[in-house]
Amino acid sequence: MTKEQLQHIISQGEGISTEFKKAKNQMPKNLFETVCAFLNRSGGTILLGVLDDGTVEGIDNDVALKMKKDIANLSNDLNTLSPSFLFDVSVVEYDGKTLINMFVPASSQVHRHKGKVFDRSADGDFELRSDEQIKNCYIRKNNTYSENTIYPYLYESDFVTGIVSQVRQMIRNNKPDHPWNNLSDADFFRQSGLYRRDLATNTEGFTMAALLLFGKPEVIMGAIPHYKLDCLLRKKDLDRYDDRDNIRDCLVVMYEKMMAFVAKHLPDKFYMENDLRVSVRDKLFREVVANMLIHREYTNAYPSTLIIYRDKFETKNANRPHLYGQLTLNNYEPFP
């Protein structure tokens, strides 16, 4: 985050998606109440080291890095935040003072801090105490995030054989200390939001997210008939294509097939980084492909497409708009 961006946030003051917290030499005791509230509402930015009135006090340098590490550990602690959530935390400098910047996105799930549900209103956090308030929070999430849709007749037998074990091993390899690694499959499904209960309807089962990640192609197509992704090569035939892969597998397999299509048709020029050869192509397209799959709106029948041309590549993805009008870098904000 640049100094200008920090200055803009501070000048705007606290609001529904901005919170300042004093953190001179220790972590604020109510930090995760705000984290929980942001996850449950619209997300936003938390700046540690700034007073409520916008005065930049800063954080002692010798505790800033420890504080950052403690925040990461607590976000993985199910007693502190359930379901757990990994978010971006960075130590930044502003006018010679150290701050911690936390970007907390809106979550598709309802989160609890120490067993309590918090929400955000104006510039404050408040606990949802009644069953009606908590139910309304679940309803709001369901209406916004289609991946929360519950399929009560979707079973583990509808998943690709061995796919869950494959994904869980990937998590272990990338995050050896992740709390999900010690859970049974049933608890893993619940903690990750892949199996849930709708408090508004009392419906229980696997979600669309689980179906998309793990489902057999014929099962996914039975629920989402328009489900597919096209990879196209257009170097000679610009009206149609020189090569095509029409992919209808679950997202884990779809990712692997898209990366294989990219490797087939794009060069990987020699590049050294710290005396090791690295694949710039794979690094770039891991981000492109993963973001295409994660951010698509799967209830929209518009097909997703990755197109490779002679001098460029292009992606097309379906979404559910939350704002209407022209998007520019000045007014665009991600809605995960």
Features:
336 residues; alpha+beta; four-stranded mixed β-sheet; 10 helices; 15 strands; 34% helix
Task: Please describe what this structure looks like.
The protein is globular. By secondary structure, it is of the alpha+beta class. The chain has helices at residues 3-12, 31-40, 61-75, 131-144, 163-174, 185-191, 208-214, 217-223, 251-265, 280-295; strands at 18-21, 44-48, 88-94, 97-104, 117-121, 124-128, 150-151, 195-198, 203-207, 229-234, 243-247, 272-273, 276-277, 304-309, 313-316. The protein has a four-stranded mixed β-sheet, with helices on both faces. The mean pLDDT is 90.
What form results from the Cα inertia axes? Answer: globular
Per DSSP, the total helix count is 10
How helical, in percent, are the residues? 25-40%
Q: How many beta-strand elements?
A: 15
Main sheet: strand order: 1-2-4-3
Biggest pleated sheet: 4 strands, mixed
Gyration radius (Cα, Å) is 22 Å
Multimerization status = single chain
Q: How much of the sequence is in beta strands?
A: 15-25%
What value does the average pLDDT take? 90
User: Which series of helices and strands comes N to C?
Assistant: HEHEHEEEEHEHHEEHHEEHEEHEE
Structural class: alpha+beta
Identify low-pLDDT runs. none
N- to C-terminal distance: 19 Å
